[in-house]
Amino acid sequence: MNEMVAQLMQHRSVRSFDPSPVPEADLREIVAAGQMASTSSNVQAYSVIAVTDPALKRELSVLTGNQAYVESCPVFLVWCADLNRLSGAAEAHLEPGADAYADSAESFIVATVDAALAAQNAAIAAESMGYGICYIGGIRNRIEEVSNLLGIPGLAYPVFGMCVGLPDQPSGQRPRLPVEAVLHRNRYDAEKGRGPVAEYDETMTRYLRMRTDGRKSTPWTRIMAEWLTRPNRLHMLEYLKKRGFLKR
Amino acid sequence: MNEMVAQLMQHRSVRSFDPSPVPEADLREIVAAGQMASTSSNVQAYSVIAVTDPALKRELSVLTGNQAYVESCPVFLVWCADLNRLSGAAEAHLEPGADAYADSAESFIVATVDAALAAQNAAIAAESMGYGICYIGGIRNRIEEVSNLLGIPGLAYPVFGMCVGLPDQPSGQRPRLPVEAVLHRNRYDAEKGRGPVAEYDETMTRYLRMRTDGRKSTPWTRIMAEWLTRPNRLHMLEYLKKRGFLKR
Protein backbone atom coordinates (compact mmCIF):
# COMPACT_ATOMS: atom_id res chain seq x y z
CA MET A 1 0.00 0.00 0.00
CA ASN A 2 1.46 3.34 -1.05
CA GLU A 3 1.35 6.48 1.13
CA MET A 4 -1.62 7.99 -0.64
CA VAL A 5 -3.73 4.87 -0.19
CA ALA A 6 -2.50 4.62 3.40
CA GLN A 7 -3.77 8.16 4.00
CA LEU A 8 -7.16 7.36 2.45
CA MET A 9 -7.42 4.28 4.66
CA GLN A 10 -6.65 6.43 7.72
CA HIS A 11 -9.64 8.72 7.21
CA ARG A 12 -11.84 9.45 10.17
CA SER A 13 -14.32 12.24 10.81
CA VAL A 14 -12.99 14.91 13.16
CA ARG A 15 -15.46 16.73 15.42
CA SER A 16 -13.16 18.47 17.87
CA PHE A 17 -10.94 21.27 16.62
CA ASP A 18 -8.08 23.45 17.73
CA PRO A 19 -9.28 27.06 17.35
CA SER A 20 -6.28 28.25 15.33
CA PRO A 21 -7.37 29.59 11.94
CA VAL A 22 -6.69 27.89 8.61
CA PRO A 23 -4.25 30.22 6.80
CA GLU A 24 -5.57 31.76 3.59
CA ALA A 25 -2.89 30.01 1.49
CA ASP A 26 -3.96 26.62 2.87
CA LEU A 27 -7.63 27.33 2.21
CA ARG A 28 -6.89 28.29 -1.38
CA GLU A 29 -4.74 25.17 -1.84
CA ILE A 30 -7.53 22.98 -0.47
CA VAL A 31 -10.12 24.52 -2.80
CA ALA A 32 -7.77 24.46 -5.80
CA ALA A 33 -7.18 20.74 -5.19
CA GLY A 34 -10.95 20.32 -5.06
CA GLN A 35 -11.23 21.99 -8.45
CA MET A 36 -8.93 19.42 -10.04
CA ALA A 37 -11.50 16.67 -9.54
CA SER A 38 -13.29 15.52 -12.68
CA THR A 39 -16.28 17.60 -13.76
CA SER A 40 -19.01 16.62 -16.21
CA SER A 41 -18.41 18.31 -19.62
CA ASN A 42 -16.23 20.84 -17.78
CA VAL A 43 -19.30 22.58 -16.36
CA GLN A 44 -17.70 22.94 -12.90
CA ALA A 45 -21.20 23.31 -11.49
CA TYR A 46 -20.39 23.91 -7.84
CA SER A 47 -19.37 26.67 -5.47
CA VAL A 48 -17.99 26.64 -1.97
CA ILE A 49 -18.64 29.23 0.71
CA ALA A 50 -15.89 29.45 3.33
CA VAL A 51 -17.58 30.59 6.52
CA THR A 52 -15.19 32.00 9.11
CA ASP A 53 -17.40 34.72 10.61
CA PRO A 54 -18.08 33.60 14.20
CA ALA A 55 -21.69 34.86 14.28
CA LEU A 56 -22.52 33.06 11.02
CA LYS A 57 -20.89 29.85 12.24
CA ARG A 58 -22.93 30.11 15.44
CA GLU A 59 -26.16 30.47 13.47
CA LEU A 60 -25.19 27.60 11.19
CA SER A 61 -24.40 25.36 14.15
CA VAL A 62 -28.00 25.88 15.34
CA LEU A 63 -29.50 25.44 11.85
CA THR A 64 -27.59 22.17 11.29
CA GLY A 65 -29.00 20.59 14.44
CA ASN A 66 -26.98 22.13 17.26
CA GLN A 67 -23.70 20.63 16.16
CA ALA A 68 -21.15 22.48 18.30
CA TYR A 69 -18.24 21.68 15.96
CA VAL A 70 -19.86 23.71 13.17
CA GLU A 71 -19.24 26.71 15.40
CA SER A 72 -15.91 25.61 16.88
CA CYS A 73 -14.16 24.62 13.64
CA PRO A 74 -12.07 27.51 12.29
CA VAL A 75 -13.58 27.29 8.81
CA PHE A 76 -16.89 25.79 7.79
CA LEU A 77 -17.12 25.05 4.07
CA VAL A 78 -20.57 25.02 2.51
CA TRP A 79 -20.41 23.03 -0.72
CA CYS A 80 -23.10 24.04 -3.17
CA ALA A 81 -24.31 22.44 -6.37
CA ASP A 82 -24.38 25.56 -8.54
CA LEU A 83 -25.98 25.97 -11.94
CA ASN A 84 -26.49 29.66 -11.22
CA ARG A 85 -22.97 30.80 -12.13
CA LEU A 86 -23.10 28.66 -15.25
CA SER A 87 -26.44 30.12 -16.31
CA GLY A 88 -25.16 33.64 -15.76
CA ALA A 89 -21.97 32.90 -17.69
CA ALA A 90 -23.92 31.45 -20.61
CA GLU A 91 -26.49 34.25 -20.73
CA ALA A 92 -24.71 36.46 -23.25
CA HIS A 93 -24.71 33.59 -25.76
CA LEU A 94 -28.38 32.64 -25.37
CA GLU A 95 -31.18 33.72 -27.69
CA PRO A 96 -33.84 35.60 -25.72
CA GLY A 97 -36.40 33.06 -24.52
CA ALA A 98 -34.13 30.10 -25.26
CA ASP A 99 -35.11 26.98 -23.30
CA ALA A 100 -32.36 26.03 -20.86
CA TYR A 101 -32.24 22.68 -19.11
CA ALA A 102 -30.75 23.64 -15.78
CA ASP A 103 -34.09 22.50 -14.35
CA SER A 104 -33.77 18.85 -15.45
CA ALA A 105 -33.08 15.88 -13.19
CA GLU A 106 -29.98 15.25 -15.32
CA SER A 107 -28.58 18.74 -14.62
CA PHE A 108 -29.36 18.26 -10.93
CA ILE A 109 -27.31 15.06 -10.86
CA VAL A 110 -24.45 16.71 -12.77
CA ALA A 111 -24.25 19.62 -10.33
CA THR A 112 -24.65 17.47 -7.22
CA VAL A 113 -21.97 15.01 -8.35
CA ASP A 114 -19.62 17.84 -9.40
CA ALA A 115 -19.93 19.34 -5.91
CA ALA A 116 -19.30 15.98 -4.24
CA LEU A 117 -16.22 15.11 -6.32
CA ALA A 118 -14.68 18.53 -5.69
CA ALA A 119 -15.44 18.32 -1.98
CA GLN A 120 -13.88 14.89 -1.62
CA ASN A 121 -10.71 16.03 -3.37
CA ALA A 122 -10.62 19.03 -1.05
CA ALA A 123 -11.13 16.77 1.97
CA ILE A 124 -8.17 14.62 0.96
CA ALA A 125 -5.99 17.66 0.34
CA ALA A 126 -6.94 19.06 3.76
CA GLU A 127 -6.19 15.75 5.49
CA SER A 128 -2.82 15.48 3.76
CA MET A 129 -1.99 18.92 5.19
CA GLY A 130 -2.75 17.76 8.74
CA TYR A 131 -6.32 19.07 8.99
CA GLY A 132 -9.31 17.05 10.04
CA ILE A 133 -12.67 17.29 8.35
CA CYS A 134 -16.27 16.30 8.97
CA TYR A 135 -19.09 16.33 6.43
CA ILE A 136 -22.28 17.93 7.73
CA GLY A 137 -25.44 16.64 6.06
CA GLY A 138 -27.37 18.60 8.72
CA ILE A 139 -26.99 21.61 6.42
CA ARG A 140 -30.13 20.22 4.77
CA ASN A 141 -32.13 20.18 8.05
CA ARG A 142 -33.26 23.77 7.68
CA ILE A 143 -31.98 24.32 4.18
CA GLU A 144 -34.23 27.22 3.28
CA GLU A 145 -33.00 29.23 6.28
CA VAL A 146 -29.38 28.30 5.51
CA SER A 147 -29.86 29.40 1.89
CA ASN A 148 -31.29 32.74 2.98
CA LEU A 149 -28.61 33.27 5.61
CA LEU A 150 -25.81 32.70 3.11
CA GLY A 151 -27.52 34.41 0.16
CA ILE A 152 -27.48 31.26 -1.99
CA PRO A 153 -29.38 32.08 -5.21
CA GLY A 154 -31.80 30.00 -7.29
CA LEU A 155 -30.34 27.11 -9.29
CA ALA A 156 -27.88 26.56 -6.45
CA TYR A 157 -28.29 24.59 -3.20
CA PRO A 158 -26.03 23.61 -0.31
CA VAL A 159 -25.41 19.86 -0.66
CA PHE A 160 -23.44 19.48 2.57
CA GLY A 161 -21.19 21.41 4.89
CA MET A 162 -17.66 20.48 5.89
CA CYS A 163 -15.85 21.41 9.11
CA VAL A 164 -12.12 21.95 8.56
CA GLY A 165 -9.46 22.56 11.19
CA LEU A 166 -6.61 21.05 13.13
CA PRO A 167 -7.88 18.11 15.19
CA ASP A 168 -7.44 18.62 18.92
CA GLN A 169 -8.00 15.02 19.96
CA PRO A 170 -7.76 11.64 18.30
CA SER A 171 -11.01 10.27 16.91
CA GLY A 172 -12.06 6.69 16.23
CA GLN A 173 -12.41 5.05 12.85
CA ARG A 174 -15.70 3.38 12.06
CA PRO A 175 -15.36 0.07 10.22
CA ARG A 176 -16.89 -0.22 6.75
CA LEU A 177 -18.85 -2.99 5.06
CA PRO A 178 -16.65 -5.82 3.75
CA VAL A 179 -15.48 -5.04 0.21
CA GLU A 180 -17.53 -7.97 -1.07
CA ALA A 181 -20.76 -6.29 0.06
CA VAL A 182 -20.28 -3.36 -2.30
CA LEU A 183 -18.18 -4.83 -5.13
CA HIS A 184 -20.05 -6.75 -7.82
CA ARG A 185 -18.50 -8.59 -10.77
CA ASN A 186 -19.85 -7.86 -14.25
CA ARG A 187 -23.45 -7.86 -13.05
CA TYR A 188 -25.24 -6.66 -9.94
CA ASP A 189 -25.82 -9.61 -7.66
CA ALA A 190 -28.55 -8.83 -5.14
CA GLU A 191 -27.80 -11.99 -3.15
CA LYS A 192 -24.11 -11.48 -2.61
CA GLY A 193 -24.48 -8.69 -0.03
CA ARG A 194 -26.22 -10.91 2.52
CA GLY A 195 -23.26 -12.78 3.95
CA PRO A 196 -21.02 -9.73 4.22
CA VAL A 197 -23.85 -7.68 5.74
CA ALA A 198 -24.40 -10.30 8.46
CA GLU A 199 -20.65 -10.26 9.14
CA TYR A 200 -20.76 -6.44 9.32
CA ASP A 201 -23.56 -6.54 11.88
CA GLU A 202 -21.18 -8.42 14.17
CA THR A 203 -18.27 -6.08 13.41
CA MET A 204 -20.34 -2.98 14.17
CA THR A 205 -21.87 -4.49 17.29
CA ARG A 206 -18.37 -5.18 18.63
CA TYR A 207 -17.22 -1.69 17.61
CA LEU A 208 -20.18 0.04 19.27
CA ARG A 209 -19.73 -1.95 22.50
CA MET A 210 -16.07 -1.02 22.56
CA ARG A 211 -16.75 2.70 21.88
CA THR A 212 -19.53 2.97 24.47
CA ASP A 213 -18.15 0.76 27.23
CA GLY A 214 -20.78 -1.81 26.44
CA ARG A 215 -23.76 0.57 26.60
CA LYS A 216 -24.65 0.32 22.90
CA SER A 217 -24.72 -2.71 20.66
CA THR A 218 -27.45 -2.08 18.09
CA PRO A 219 -26.71 -4.06 14.91
CA TRP A 220 -26.10 -1.99 11.77
CA THR A 221 -29.13 -3.50 10.01
CA ARG A 222 -31.40 -2.28 12.83
CA ILE A 223 -29.85 1.20 12.73
CA MET A 224 -30.51 1.20 8.97
CA ALA A 225 -34.14 0.20 9.55
CA GLU A 226 -34.45 3.17 11.91
CA TRP A 227 -32.82 5.45 9.33
CA LEU A 228 -35.14 4.28 6.55
CA THR A 229 -38.32 4.77 8.56
CA ARG A 230 -37.39 8.19 9.94
CA PRO A 231 -39.18 10.94 7.95
CA ASN A 232 -35.93 12.77 7.37
CA ARG A 233 -35.82 16.14 5.56
CA LEU A 234 -39.00 15.54 3.61
CA HIS A 235 -38.98 19.24 2.67
CA MET A 236 -36.15 18.64 0.19
CA LEU A 237 -38.21 17.95 -2.93
CA GLU A 238 -40.34 21.07 -2.52
CA TYR A 239 -37.29 23.16 -1.65
CA LEU A 240 -35.37 21.94 -4.71
CA LYS A 241 -38.30 22.64 -7.03
CA LYS A 242 -38.62 26.15 -5.59
CA ARG A 243 -34.92 26.60 -6.32
CA GLY A 244 -35.55 25.71 -9.96
CA PHE A 245 -34.34 22.09 -9.85
CA LEU A 246 -35.96 18.78 -10.81
CA LYS A 247 -38.75 20.29 -12.87
CA ARG A 248 -38.45 17.75 -15.67
CA MET B 1 2.63 21.71 -1.73
CA ASN B 2 2.93 18.19 -0.33
CA GLU B 3 3.05 15.07 -2.50
CA MET B 4 -0.62 14.18 -2.12
CA VAL B 5 -1.78 17.65 -3.13
CA ALA B 6 0.72 17.52 -5.98
CA GLN B 7 -0.91 14.28 -7.16
CA LEU B 8 -4.40 15.78 -6.97
CA MET B 9 -3.18 18.78 -8.99
CA GLN B 10 -1.79 16.40 -11.62
CA HIS B 11 -5.14 14.77 -12.37
CA ARG B 12 -6.16 14.40 -15.97
CA SER B 13 -8.73 12.15 -17.61
CA VAL B 14 -7.20 9.18 -19.40
CA ARG B 15 -8.95 7.80 -22.48
CA SER B 16 -6.29 5.54 -23.95
CA PHE B 17 -5.33 2.38 -22.08
CA ASP B 18 -2.79 -0.37 -22.11
CA PRO B 19 -4.76 -3.65 -22.36
CA SER B 20 -3.01 -5.33 -19.40
CA PRO B 21 -5.54 -6.28 -16.72
CA VAL B 22 -5.83 -4.63 -13.32
CA PRO B 23 -4.80 -7.32 -10.81
CA GLU B 24 -7.49 -8.43 -8.39
CA ALA B 25 -5.49 -7.17 -5.39
CA ASP B 26 -5.27 -3.70 -6.92
CA LEU B 27 -8.98 -3.64 -7.72
CA ARG B 28 -9.84 -4.56 -4.15
CA GLU B 29 -7.43 -1.94 -2.79
CA ILE B 30 -9.01 0.73 -5.03
CA VAL B 31 -12.54 -0.17 -3.91
CA ALA B 32 -11.53 -0.48 -0.25
CA ALA B 33 -10.01 3.03 -0.44
CA GLY B 34 -13.29 4.21 -1.95
CA GLN B 35 -15.16 2.75 0.98
CA MET B 36 -13.16 4.85 3.44
CA ALA B 37 -14.73 8.06 2.12
CA SER B 38 -17.29 9.67 4.40
CA THR B 39 -20.82 8.30 4.19
CA SER B 40 -24.00 9.91 5.48
CA SER B 41 -25.09 8.27 8.78
CA ASN B 42 -22.94 5.27 7.81
CA VAL B 43 -25.54 4.15 5.28
CA GLN B 44 -22.87 3.32 2.64
CA ALA B 45 -25.59 3.63 0.03
CA TYR B 46 -23.61 2.72 -3.07
CA SER B 47 -22.35 -0.28 -5.00
CA VAL B 48 -19.78 -0.67 -7.71
CA ILE B 49 -19.89 -3.17 -10.54
CA ALA B 50 -16.47 -4.06 -11.95
CA VAL B 51 -17.04 -4.95 -15.58
CA THR B 52 -14.19 -6.94 -17.14
CA ASP B 53 -16.18 -9.21 -19.46
CA PRO B 54 -15.21 -8.13 -23.00
CA ALA B 55 -18.69 -8.61 -24.47
CA LEU B 56 -20.30 -6.56 -21.71
CA LYS B 57 -17.71 -3.80 -22.09
CA ARG B 58 -18.40 -3.76 -25.83
CA GLU B 59 -22.15 -3.37 -25.24
CA LEU B 60 -21.54 -0.67 -22.64
CA SER B 61 -19.26 1.24 -25.00
CA VAL B 62 -22.18 1.43 -27.46
CA LEU B 63 -24.75 2.30 -24.79
CA THR B 64 -22.58 5.12 -23.42
CA GLY B 65 -22.34 6.83 -26.81
CA ASN B 66 -19.76 4.79 -28.74
CA GLN B 67 -16.92 5.63 -26.42
CA ALA B 68 -14.18 3.22 -27.50
CA TYR B 69 -12.25 3.51 -24.23
CA VAL B 70 -15.19 1.97 -22.33
CA GLU B 71 -14.39 -1.19 -24.28
CA SER B 72 -10.61 -0.86 -24.35
CA CYS B 73 -10.03 -0.11 -20.66
CA PRO B 74 -9.25 -3.31 -18.73
CA VAL B 75 -11.87 -2.63 -16.06
CA PHE B 76 -14.93 -0.46 -16.30
CA LEU B 77 -16.40 0.46 -12.92
CA VAL B 78 -20.10 1.26 -12.77
CA TRP B 79 -20.75 3.30 -9.65
CA CYS B 80 -24.33 2.97 -8.43
CA ALA B 81 -26.29 4.90 -5.84
CA ASP B 82 -27.80 1.97 -4.00
CA LEU B 83 -30.61 2.02 -1.46
CA ASN B 84 -31.55 -1.50 -2.46
CA ARG B 85 -28.94 -3.30 -0.35
CA LEU B 86 -29.80 -1.04 2.57
CA SER B 87 -33.52 -1.76 2.24
CA GLY B 88 -32.85 -5.48 2.06
CA ALA B 89 -30.56 -5.34 5.08
CA ALA B 90 -33.12 -3.40 7.11
CA GLU B 91 -36.07 -5.60 6.15
CA ALA B 92 -35.83 -8.03 9.05
CA HIS B 93 -36.21 -5.14 11.50
CA LEU B 94 -39.17 -3.46 9.82
CA GLU B 95 -42.80 -3.86 10.86
CA PRO B 96 -44.87 -5.24 7.98
CA GLY B 97 -46.21 -2.28 5.98
CA ALA B 98 -43.83 0.20 7.65
CA ASP B 99 -43.35 3.36 5.60
CA ALA B 100 -39.74 3.63 4.39
CA TYR B 101 -38.30 6.82 2.95
CA ALA B 102 -35.88 5.43 0.40
CA ASP B 103 -38.14 7.18 -2.13
CA SER B 104 -37.52 10.72 -0.85
CA ALA B 105 -35.43 13.39 -2.57
CA GLU B 106 -33.32 13.45 0.60
CA SER B 107 -32.50 9.74 0.34
CA PHE B 108 -31.73 10.20 -3.36
CA ILE B 109 -29.19 12.91 -2.51
CA VAL B 110 -27.65 10.80 0.27
CA ALA B 111 -27.15 7.81 -2.05
CA THR B 112 -25.91 9.88 -5.00
CA VAL B 113 -23.41 11.77 -2.83
CA ASP B 114 -22.27 8.57 -1.09
CA ALA B 115 -21.53 7.03 -4.51
CA ALA B 116 -19.65 10.12 -5.69
CA LEU B 117 -17.47 10.41 -2.56
CA ALA B 118 -16.53 6.74 -2.70
CA ALA B 119 -15.79 6.93 -6.43
CA GLN B 120 -13.55 9.97 -6.04
CA ASN B 121 -11.58 8.28 -3.27
CA ALA B 122 -11.22 5.22 -5.50
CA ALA B 123 -10.10 7.43 -8.41
CA ILE B 124 -7.38 8.97 -6.27
CA ALA B 125 -6.24 5.59 -5.00
CA ALA B 126 -6.09 4.27 -8.58
CA GLU B 127 -4.10 7.28 -9.76
CA SER B 128 -1.65 6.92 -6.88
CA MET B 129 -1.06 3.34 -8.04
CA GLY B 130 -0.19 4.48 -11.55
CA TYR B 131 -3.57 3.90 -13.19
CA GLY B 132 -5.47 6.46 -15.20
CA ILE B 133 -9.20 6.98 -14.90
CA CYS B 134 -12.00 8.66 -16.79
CA TYR B 135 -15.51 9.30 -15.50
CA ILE B 136 -18.23 8.32 -17.97
CA GLY B 137 -21.46 10.33 -17.57
CA GLY B 138 -22.60 8.70 -20.82
CA ILE B 139 -23.73 5.76 -18.66
CA ARG B 140 -26.92 7.83 -18.26
CA ASN B 141 -27.49 8.14 -22.05
CA ARG B 142 -29.38 4.85 -22.27
CA ILE B 143 -29.64 4.21 -18.58
CA GLU B 144 -32.61 1.87 -18.70
CA GLU B 145 -30.77 -0.46 -21.09
CA VAL B 146 -27.61 -0.26 -18.99
CA SER B 147 -29.62 -1.09 -15.86
CA ASN B 148 -31.20 -4.12 -17.54
CA LEU B 149 -27.89 -5.28 -18.99
CA LEU B 150 -26.17 -5.19 -15.59
CA GLY B 151 -29.18 -6.39 -13.57
CA ILE B 152 -29.31 -3.25 -11.44
CA PRO B 153 -32.40 -3.53 -9.22
CA GLY B 154 -34.94 -0.93 -8.13
CA LEU B 155 -33.80 1.68 -5.60
CA ALA B 156 -30.38 1.61 -7.29
CA TYR B 157 -29.13 3.48 -10.36
CA PRO B 158 -25.80 3.86 -12.16
CA VAL B 159 -24.61 7.42 -11.44
CA PHE B 160 -21.55 7.26 -13.69
CA GLY B 161 -19.02 4.83 -15.08
CA MET B 162 -15.27 4.97 -14.63
CA CYS B 163 -12.62 3.56 -16.97
CA VAL B 164 -9.56 2.29 -15.08
CA GLY B 165 -6.30 1.05 -16.54
CA LEU B 166 -2.68 1.87 -17.21
CA PRO B 167 -2.46 4.93 -19.48
CA ASP B 168 -0.77 4.17 -22.79
CA GLN B 169 -0.12 7.74 -23.82
CA PRO B 170 0.16 11.07 -22.04
CA SER B 171 -3.03 13.16 -21.93
CA GLY B 172 -3.50 16.89 -21.54
CA GLN B 173 -4.76 18.70 -18.50
CA ARG B 174 -7.70 21.04 -18.94
CA PRO B 175 -7.40 24.27 -16.96
CA ARG B 176 -10.01 25.03 -14.30
CA LEU B 177 -11.87 28.20 -13.37
CA PRO B 178 -9.81 30.57 -11.22
CA VAL B 179 -10.23 29.74 -7.52
CA GLU B 180 -11.96 33.07 -6.98
CA ALA B 181 -14.81 32.03 -9.32
CA VAL B 182 -15.86 29.15 -7.07
CA LEU B 183 -14.73 30.28 -3.59
CA HIS B 184 -17.05 32.65 -1.73
CA ARG B 185 -16.37 34.25 1.66
CA ASN B 186 -19.05 33.94 4.36
CA ARG B 187 -21.86 34.64 1.90
CA TYR B 188 -22.54 33.70 -1.72
CA ASP B 189 -21.59 36.65 -3.92
CA ALA B 190 -23.28 36.33 -7.33
CA GLU B 191 -21.21 39.18 -8.76
CA LYS B 192 -17.76 37.91 -7.88
CA GLY B 193 -17.68 35.17 -10.52
CA ARG B 194 -17.88 37.57 -13.46
CA GLY B 195 -14.27 38.74 -13.62
CA PRO B 196 -12.76 35.26 -13.12
CA VAL B 197 -15.18 33.79 -15.68
CA ALA B 198 -14.13 36.34 -18.31
CA GLU B 199 -10.49 35.51 -17.52
CA TYR B 200 -11.30 31.80 -17.89
CA ASP B 201 -12.85 32.37 -21.32
CA GLU B 202 -9.46 33.62 -22.46
CA THR B 203 -7.58 30.77 -20.76
CA MET B 204 -9.80 28.13 -22.37
CA THR B 205 -9.70 29.79 -25.79
CA ARG B 206 -5.89 29.69 -25.68
CA TYR B 207 -5.95 26.08 -24.44
CA LEU B 208 -8.36 24.93 -27.16
CA ARG B 209 -6.33 26.67 -29.90
CA MET B 210 -3.19 24.98 -28.61
CA ARG B 211 -4.82 21.52 -28.40
CA THR B 212 -6.43 21.70 -31.87
CA ASP B 213 -3.67 23.47 -33.80
CA GLY B 214 -5.83 26.57 -33.97
CA ARG B 215 -8.96 24.85 -35.31
CA LYS B 216 -11.10 25.41 -32.21
CA SER B 217 -11.37 28.49 -30.04
CA THR B 218 -14.94 28.54 -28.71
CA PRO B 219 -15.07 30.44 -25.42
CA TRP B 220 -16.13 28.44 -22.36
CA THR B 221 -19.20 30.61 -21.80
CA ARG B 222 -20.45 29.76 -25.31
CA ILE B 223 -19.80 26.04 -24.77
CA MET B 224 -21.81 26.35 -21.54
CA ALA B 225 -24.67 28.04 -23.42
CA GLU B 226 -24.67 25.09 -25.82
CA TRP B 227 -24.62 22.64 -22.90
CA LEU B 228 -27.53 24.37 -21.17
CA THR B 229 -29.75 24.46 -24.23
CA ARG B 230 -29.07 20.87 -25.29
CA PRO B 231 -32.01 18.62 -24.24
CA ASN B 232 -29.66 16.19 -22.55
CA ARG B 233 -30.92 12.94 -20.97
CA LEU B 234 -34.41 14.26 -20.32
CA HIS B 235 -35.50 10.69 -19.59
CA MET B 236 -33.74 10.77 -16.21
CA LEU B 237 -36.64 12.02 -14.07
CA GLU B 238 -39.05 9.38 -15.37
CA TYR B 239 -36.39 6.67 -15.12
CA LEU B 240 -35.56 7.61 -11.52
CA LYS B 241 -39.23 7.61 -10.49
CA LYS B 242 -39.69 4.20 -12.09
CA ARG B 243 -36.71 3.00 -10.04
CA GLY B 244 -38.46 4.17 -6.87
CA PHE B 245 -36.59 7.45 -6.38
CA LEU B 246 -37.74 11.04 -5.96
CA LYS B 247 -41.35 10.22 -5.16
CA ARG B 248 -41.61 12.77 -2.35
From TrEMBL, chains A, B:
Keywords: Flavoprotein, FMN, NADP, Oxidoreductase. Pfam families: Nitroreductase. It comes from Cohnella rhizosphaerae. It comes from the Bacteria. Residues 9-165 form the Nitroreductase domain. The keyword Protein biosynthesis does not apply. This is Oxygen-insensitive NADPH nitroreductase. Belongs to the flavin oxidoreductase frp family. GO terms for molecular function: oxidoreductase activity. CDD domains: NfsA-like (cd02146).
